[in-house]
Amino acid sequence: MIGFGLIVNTIGLFFGPISQEFHVGRASVALMTTLQNAAAAISLIFAGKIMEKVNLRWLLTGCFSVIALSMLTLSIAHSLIHFYIAWIIIGICQPIAITLSIPVLLSKWFNQKLGTVMGISLGLSAFGGTIFNPIIASVITKFGWRGGFIAEALLLGLILVPLAISIRPKPDEKHPAYGKVEKTKADLAVSGITLQEALKQPIFYALAFAMLALQFVSGSVQHISGHITNLGISPVLAASVVSGVMIGAAVGKISIGYFLDKLSPLWVLLAYSLFGVLGWSGQIFLTNPTLLTVSAFILGLGQGVCLVALPYLIQKQFGEKDYSNILSVINMLGAFAMSLSVYLVGLFFDQTHSYNLGWTINVIAYVLSFIAIFITLRKNKAE
């Protein structure tokens, strides 16, 4: 809730104020998140292996401490170079701190109902964005963007660092995982396959493409507040629209996890992909604040595909054996896409004075990613 809510979901609120103070385009400001996600993508190459070898309690504690300190230094930044360096450091820590730790820890602790608990957990991440967007927007309005970074650093340092110290990395005899492990034909799924074996299966590339396409979409969410203010709507209402995205994402992630445990994954993916298509289409054609908020809620529902359904399907398709490495590699592609997305959508705006081109790409991304997964999952079933 706090990690995703602050590190990922509120950064768009800073683009406008920083752009005005340094007299640069939004693409130049958004470049800091491009570098952040590029650093995260490179870090993901090694993150899975590091998480297998180092105690997660101390690894997470160190990562959150570094992120909080980096955020705090931004309150005294006087050049864009400072932003770029700080966000590169945050990007290096981010995969271990939030991107991989959530699905990896949950997959270790829940042998059953993994989709449901993953949905609840990542739904809370979106709920964090709902809470913190108006709070950080108010802090920025009263104390400026420097005060906003101080507030974020304090929340991360005073809450997440102590919580990280309390984490128990994996089950043991005294503290067993939830649910029984099936010892029948499911043994293969429980033990899983290696990354090298996964690379030989078409479903790996379908899931990787879907992650790439939908993380591009996720990156562009950071520009929604800028899109709303560009329509002549006040920053406070713009923050409300962003909160609509976060509420929708919270509902979408929680519900998609539940439905993945109960229904056919293909039907679930179809429904939530349609939410993504409808929601982003609404951002293109609507101008009324209320309707934009409804559209934002619907596109938020579609966010569940990327953050819940894809990690869930990766675990179900390839098992637990090499899950952190396989997820790390696929997430690496997504992080590169997100890094490009934030910059490119900002660049599209600088060139066209509109975000519609970016939103159109998002609609196409949902359609193509569903088609890729649909074809390969059907092929797996046929075999």
TrEMBL record:
Q: Where is the Major facilitator superfamily (MFS) profile domain?
A: 1-381
Q: Which Pfam families match?
A: MFS_1
Span-the-membrane segments of this chain are 27-46, 58-78, 84-105, 117-137, 143-165, 203-224, 236-259, 266-286, 292-314, 326-349, 355-377
Signal peptide start-end:
none
Domain of life assignment: Bacteria
> Subcellular localization, per the record?
Cell membrane
Q: Which InterPro entries match?
A: MFS, MFS_dom, MFS_trans_sf, Proton-linked_MCT
Per UniProt, the keywords (alphabetical) are:
Membrane, Transmembrane, Transmembrane helix, Transport
PROSITE patterns xref list: MFS
Topological type in the membrane: Multi-pass membrane protein
List the residue ranges forming a coiled coil, or say none.
none
Protein name as catalogued: Major facilitator superfamily permease
Q: Which organism is it from?
A: Lactobacillus intestinalis DSM 6629
